[in-house]
Design a protein that fits this description.
heterodimer, A: 141 residues, alpha+beta, Thiol Ester Dehydrase, Chain A, five-stranded antiparallel beta sheet, 37% strand, B: 157 residues, 6 strands, 19% helix, 34% strand, elongated
Chain lengths: 141, 157
């Protein structure tokens, strides 16, 4: 994807990612985040959750995957803002839907930066919005 | 504690390809910047750490041999009641890529603490912190503002 090819308001392809218990356990292990919500189903149930759920880094990683799948391997996420509205539990699916909000050239630094602003929202399989995000991706130009 | 900046907290080891690829495997992200050393070196100067992993790269391990408790995030150390934490929002700016071999540190600051709020999870406080991440040459690599809800679960009161 080049910056010239980007169409503002274009929809990104929907991506569905089923989240198994293995993935949630990997989530705690890969991020070293051992808050009990993320590995202890009994703790989660004792505190009103159906079971363990993924952490912010997993959600952010999925959002970044959507963004750089769009921008290509020479693109990089330079900003991401997420709100945690609901949890993705083991056994759920993450459903990402996104669109291009804007494209712009940042001339504030030494070299121009070719930027694309995306909205990416993560829903669960019941179509409940769990994590809306604003993402800015820098393209190669 | 509002406005207080912590001393730098250092990662115990350099960023490793193993952690990069374990995380990318967990997310199922095929981006060659994480997997293909030749491509990544050509494009970025080395294997790239997924930006979303950055907080994890500064997480202390849950056990260390000297027996001292791992240093937790400043949001957990603010003298407030509340036995559980859950994240509410995160806004991160990534100024330069983090590469395999980088040595990282973070400085944290409490930006604000809300009055007590009662949510469906329980009663507690929203704590907003700002984390500034550094490479060992002093370069700021990322700035992250995080809002965390620290609370006493309703069933524990």
């Amino acid at each position: 994807m080049t910056w010239d090819d980007v169409v503002v308001s274009a929809q990104l392809p929907e991506v569905i990612d089923p989240i198994s218990y293995e993935r949630v356990v990997m989530n705690a292990g890969t991020t070293w985040d051992y808050v009990p919500w993320h590995f202890n189903p009994q703790y989660a149930k004792d505190h009103g959750h159906p079971t363990i759920f993924v952490n912010t880094m997993h959600l952010a990683g999925f959002i970044d995957r959507i963004a750089t799948d769009f921008g290509g391997p020479h693109s990089r996420v330079i900003r991401r803002k997420v709100s945690l509205l609901g949890s993705i539990y083991a056994g759920d699916s993450m459903v990402a839907r996104g669109r291009v909000v804007d494209k712009r050239i940042d001339t504030a630094g030494d070299a121009p930066r070719y930027l694309v602003d995306l909205e990416v929202a993560i829903f669960n399989q019941r179509d409940e919005l769990c994590c809306p995000a604003e993402v800015t991706v820098e393209l190669a130009g | 504690m509002i406005g207080t900046r912590t001393e730098p907290r250092f990662a115990g080891t350099a960023v490793s390809g193993a952690r990069i690829q374990h995380f990318a495997s967990m997310v199922r992200d095929p981006n060659p910047s994480y997997w293909d050393a030749e491509f990544a070196t050509s494009a970025w100067g080395g294997l790239v750490a997924p930006p979303a992993l950055l907080i994890g790269l500064l997480m202390p391990p849950p056990w260390v041999p000297d027996g001292g408790p791992p240093t937790a995030s400043i949001a957990v150390r603010v003298p407030l009641p509340g036995t559980a934490i859950i994240n509410a929002a995160n806004d991160a700016e990534y100024l330069t890529p983090v590469l395999e071999g980088d040595m990282l540190s973070v400085v944290e600051e409490v930006v604000s603490v809300s009055p007590e709020k009662t949510t469906r999870l329980g009663a507690g406080h929203f704590i907003e912190t700002r984390e500034t991440y550094y490479r060992d040459d002093g370069t700021v690599i990322a700035i992250c503002t995080n809002t965390l809800f620290r609370f006493t679960p309703a069933g524990d009161r």
